[in-house]
Amino acid sequence: MSFERVGFIIFAVLSVLPVVPLLSVAGRLLKRQRVALWKIAASFLFTVGIYAAVSIDAFLIEPNWPRLDTIEIKANVQQPLTILHLSDLHLEPTPARRDRWLADRLAELEPDIIVLTGDIHQLDSFRRQPLQRMLGNIRPRLGVFTCIGFDNVRILREALPGVRVLKNEGVVIEDGGTKIGVCGLQETRGRDAAYASISDAPFKLVINPTPDLADEAAQNGADLYLCGHTHGGQVRIPLWGAIITNSDSGKKYEAGLYRNGKTCIYTSRGFGLEPKPAPQVRFFCRPQITLIKVVPK
Description:
14 strands
């Protein structure tokens, strides 16, 4: 049985649990048994209260309650390096409530590198202004790099000329004597050349929209693999996690920090939401951006 099927079964069971007390009271009333009025009211209020609380959290609170997460890893760098990982921004023509928070963080944080791992704008939006408004003024010391998810490359390049778009290619930059290789992947032919382009760099950063190439990147010597796409499931079940990841790797790299040999793999929960008609919800899965501190071994 697939993990999605198991997750949906768990979700379905949890979804109907709040109505059990109300069904119990209704069953007794149908059998013409006496039920105290307070028990009827209590079961009704309990059921309505649970559904209302979950709905308010999932539709109104969590989608607009982003967080900045910070992690630290050790790698072959001569001095500390900070990387701001942005993923699945899904920027809309009309700013979402959470966008102001992101603009404030971008203004106050001073990372050395910013990487965007796909789905920067909604695919059905061909307006440059949302991208320019949010990302047009970011100027990290060592540059901004992106790989391509469900994005329009022409729009990205016109709106953000300062962002380096990496399509199965790599670039090596120097920072205080340390060579840093940044490689952006696509799930098409040509990845061998992309890995080769950064093979001499002591620190290799590989970015891809999904976690599906994480194991391949590890085999090719990546020190850090950054991705998104899963949205962390967007709806998560306690003790189980994502119900669905929309990824071939399933739950293996669904969200957070993982290791494969010497390679650190980080899957972002993302910042935005899939476009409608997808449910505009998050549950136990707040939007995030991540500051990664790379320190010398």
